[in-house]
Amino acid sequence: MARRKGLSKISLLHYIKLILRSLLFCVVLVFYILDRTEVLTYRAILPAVVWVFFVVEMLLRFFPSRLESMGCQKQFVRNYEPLGEDSSPINQSAKTTALVVIIWLALNAVIGALYYAGIFDTGILILIAIGYSVCDIICILFFCPFQTWIMKNRCCTTCRIYNWDFAMMFTPLVFAPSLYTYSLLGCAVMLLLRWEITYFLHPERFSTATNGCLDCSRCEEKLCSHKKQLQGFLRKYRTRFFPPRVIKRYIERTKKEENRQSDGEE
After folding, report:
1. Would the N or C end of the chain have less CB density within 10 A of its end CB?
2. CA–CA gap between residue 137 and residue 133 (Å, rounded)
């Protein structure tokens, strides 16, 4: 009988992040419902808590860490293992990367339009940003639409846009100028620029064709195994919880992705 794989340390930390971010979203939502005019002002403590929560995480991302995913750590020279002088980096298409940018900006342009139309207020923008942060962890642990439908990357470790996460989270805050929001957004943009400059100067660190640290045999996270376990769960309980047509499409898409990855590795 096959032994189920236990959670890796990094996977466990992602689950903790998911719980903490979800709790933060719920707390801000409750306070927003109770008193939307006061809870997000400078006199309230909650904005400072939100600010510290994310700023600390972003600052840590600027430095190498064994407690972070290789997806964001591959930019550092310590995580680069050359595969040979004749190897050339094969990175993800600039077109697919641009498509992600266009889709994300379009989505947040709609949010901005709703804000300027008076339908959304600053509190809603902050809730959306924290909601994005929850979705970010869901993408890592369970299902990522950018990976599956657009980028087509093997896993989070090889993701071209991994370190875009904070900049994408805080995009809605551009419509709500304040010391808290713009400092969060500014730190996220600095993190993004650091990532993009490194990618431009050292593309070999980001490619499985040139960096041995990105090989599956070197992976300590095993995040992909959790997604496979989810697929197995869906197969087992599809008739109880989900429409068969939805599950069928999910399984077919996953099989195609696995076949594509195995062909690429060969």
Report:
1. N
2. 7
